[in-house]
Structures are given as C-alpha cells and as structure tokens.
Specification:
Order of helices and strands: EHEHEHEHEHEEHEHEHHHHHHH
Shape: globular
Radius of gyration: 20 Å
Bound molecules: nicotinamide-adenine-dinucleotide
CATH superfamily of the largest domain: NAD(P)-binding Rossmann-like Domain
Distance between the termini: 57 Å
CATH architecture of the largest domain: 3-Layer(aba) Sandwich
Helix content: 40-55%
Number of helices: 14
Strand order of the largest sheet: 3-2-1-4-5-6
CATH topology of the largest domain: Rossmann fold
C-alpha cells in the first residue's frame, strides 16, 4: 500500500521503517532533513511538505510532538488538507480528544476522513511492532488502513466517535505516568531507609507492586542511571495535562490524577521538557537526599 508518513522522530522513524520492511511504499516528510534522508536510504521517497505527501498518497500517517504540530500539519497552509490525492489522515500522535475533534471537523469540511490512532508501548514497542494501537473513526477507513497498522502493533478499534481513541490513550498514559512517579517514591523511601534498590525492584516485580515502571523503566534507564528511555518529559507532561483537562471537561474530580499532575509539573520545572521522562525520579531523590541505583547508590548508603 502507498502510505504517506509525517514526523520521523523517536516513534515515527521506527514505525515508518517497519512499514517499509513490510513492503509498503512510503512517501515521508519531517522538518529534520536528516531523518528524511535516513528513511530514503531505506527505500522511502522524500516529500517537501505535508501537502506534497498528501498530493502523492491517499493515506497519510503522522507522529508529531505537539497539538499545534498535528493541527498545522493536518490543516495549516501547505498541510495535508490541501493535498490532491489524500483521502484520510491517520494521527498516531497523542493530542487529546478536543484537538482530535477540532482536526476532524476541519478535515471533514474538505471531505477528508480523520482516524485517531494514538499508540502506546514506547520506542521499544515501535521498533518491535508491539505497540497498542487505538483507533477511532469511520469503520470502513479503519478496515482500509488496518493492514498497515497491524505492522506497528496490536490494533484495537475503539469506536466511530471522533476523539474516543484519544480518551483511551489518556487513560492509559495516566497509569503510565503514575507508575513512574509512584514507583520512584516507593523506591526512594526504601533507599532512604537503607534498602538496595535493585533488590527492591526484583521483589516488586515478583510481587503485587509490579507495574510498567518497575518492569521496564527502572531496569532499563533508572537503576543504571542512563535516563535514556526515549520519551521526553515534555511529552509525558503534555499527556498528563490533557488527561486532567479531559477529566475536567467531563465534570470529574480525579484525586490521584491531580496529585500525579502536580508531581509531573515539578519534574518539568526542575528537569526541563527535553529530559527523558525517567528523570522524574531525580526531584524525588533530591527532596529525600538519596540517589537510587548506579555507583552513586552505594556511595549514598
Ligand atoms: P519526537 O519529538 O521524537 O518526534 C517528533 C518528530 O516530528 C520530529 O522528528 C520532528 O522533527 C517532527 N516534527 C515536528 N513538527 C513537525 C512539523 N510541523 N512538520 C513535520 N515534522 C515535524 O516525538 P516522539 O517521541 O516520536 O512522539 C511523537 C508522538 O507520539 C507524540 O504525540 C507522543 O506523545 C507520542 N508517543 C510517544 C511515545 C514515546 O515513547 N516516545 C510513546 C507513545 C506515544
């Protein structure tokens, strides 16, 4: 299938590479020329703008870092909306249901279909094709793109209502965000009292406290203190804020989510938006006066 792909970052690049490896013909665009060149070397064709992608393909996928980027790429000047050939825009980014509906409505005026298709499972999942892919939009268009989405992960049809896959994704990411800071607090507490953090993580993973942070993030990026999991703090905070807005617009008060949101605001203030989201443990360590993992952990004991 001919596929357009816009946004070749941490997630977009490995997803696009998998699509090429599966035999699809890709037309790609990113603001960063080097990302485009790396995919052209793998067999993709380069485009000069989102419109150019949409002039050349019926199905355009996007994996972009902000709500504004998705809005501009989809509906701005030189955007997908101006393309001659395009029929559907598949947004793999996390933008929240309100922005998804806004993009849906603007595209609908030009008879273009929008499929929300946020993904979960991180860079590792994008590389291995094991993401959870949540899709909402017209069923017929979903069926058309499903063979391509099957290449990047396990595909779930959430419903036809625009934005509903985004709500699903925000519920998922609230739990992911909670796991990182809650596990950080628990491990910091243990280290403060003299426990070995590596033993703690082994126990938690064999016990009922096991979660995605203890299973994946601590062993991979926190205990070795590499802080290179591949998801920026700014993106995690975007998702937590979107989730809190979503809850508010539904008239809900979510006590745990609000506490988690406050902690992530501290993380972005102290560590910066570009830091890896596994750095969330650092302000918690600082407040406790301990360091978890690595050589420093032993020094701190
Ligand atoms: P990223 O910042 O690594 O990549 C974004 C890419 O989009 C970059 O290559 C950038 O140059 C490009 N870009 C930005 N604005 C553009 C524009 N106007 N036109 C063309 N290209 C543009 O971000 P990422 O980590 O790959 O995340 C992408 C999306 O996937 C986000 O919505 C994020 O929330 C979501 N997501 C990320 C992860 C993860 O683990 N990284 C997991 C699940 C979902």
């Amino acid at each position: 299938m001919e596929i357009g792909f816009i946004g070749l970052g941490n997630m977009g690049f490995p997803m696009a590479r998998r699509l090429i490896e599966a035999g699809h013909q890709l037309v790609v665009f990113d603001q960063r020329k080097e990302a485009v060149e790396r995919l052209v070397a793998l067999g993709a064709q380069a485009a000069s703008s989102p419109k150019d992608v949409a002039d050349r393909t019926e199905t355009v996928l996007a994996s972009l870092p902000s709500l504004q980027a998705s809005l501009e790429v989809a509906t701005g000047t030189d955007g997908v909306i101006e393309g001659r050939r395009v029929r559907r825009f598949v947004d793999l980014s996390t933008v929240g249901s309100h922005m998804a509906v806004r993009i849906h409505d603007l595209l609908a005026k030009h008879n273009l279909v929008q499929l929300d298709s946020p993904v979960s499972g991180g860079v590792g999942g994008a590389e291995k094709g094991t993401l959870a892919v949540m899709v909402s939009g017209p069923r017929a268009d979903f069926e058309t793109v499903k063979p391509a989405l099957d290449v990047i992960g396990k595909v779930f049809f959430i419903g036809e209502k625009p934005g509903s896959a985004q709500t699903m994704k925000l519920a998922n990411n609230l739990l992911s965000a909670t796991a990182v800071v809650a596990t950080s607090e628990a491990v910091v507490m243990g280290v403060k009292s003299g426990l070995d953090p590596a033993v703690m993580i082994d126990v938690i993973n064999a016990g009922s406290g096991m979660n995605t942070a203890s299973r994946d993030k601590f062993p991979r990026a926190i205990l070795p203190r590499s802080f290179d999991y591949g998801f920026a703090t700014g993106l995690m905070v975007k998702d937590v804020r979107l989730c809190l807005e979503e809850a508010k617009s539904l008239g809900l008060s979510m006590e745990v989510a609000e506490a988690v949101g406050r902690l992530w605001e501290v993380v972005i203030r102290e560590m910066g938006a570009e830091s890896d989201f596994t750095s969330a443990i650092k302000p918690i360590e600082k407040a406790a006066g301990v360091v978890v993992g690595g050589k420093a952990a032993h020094a701190a004991k």
